[in-house]
Design a protein that fits this description.
This protein is mainly beta. The protein has one helix at residues 70-85; strands spanning 3-10, 25-28, 34-38, 43-50, 56-63, 88-92, 95-100, 103-111.
Length: 114
Amino acid sequence: MNTYWKLTEPGGAPATLLPDNREAHFILTAEGTRIAGSTDCNRLIGTCESGTDPGLRLKVGGVTMMACEESLMTQERKFIEALNASTSYRIDGEKLELRQGDQVLARFESRKMK
């Protein structure tokens, strides 16, 4: 737990990162029932429920409401939709895919926590 997952591909497109912005990511907390992170524009918090492997339910419970450049707002929407719609996951080394059935909703890479 406490793995930092950097968003690399929301909805099949490469993630956008602008100078002076945080990178979009989420962290599954040590107790394994909460998530926290950033959409690159806004902060987010939520919950996590794991079912039968590889079952996973993420639910974004709150997001700050800062306005950002349109490309980041679009990415934020795709990121939150992927978190909320995921029903399973696949981990291959340092890479994570959030899935809904056979569809890949978003891809992430793990980063060391500072």
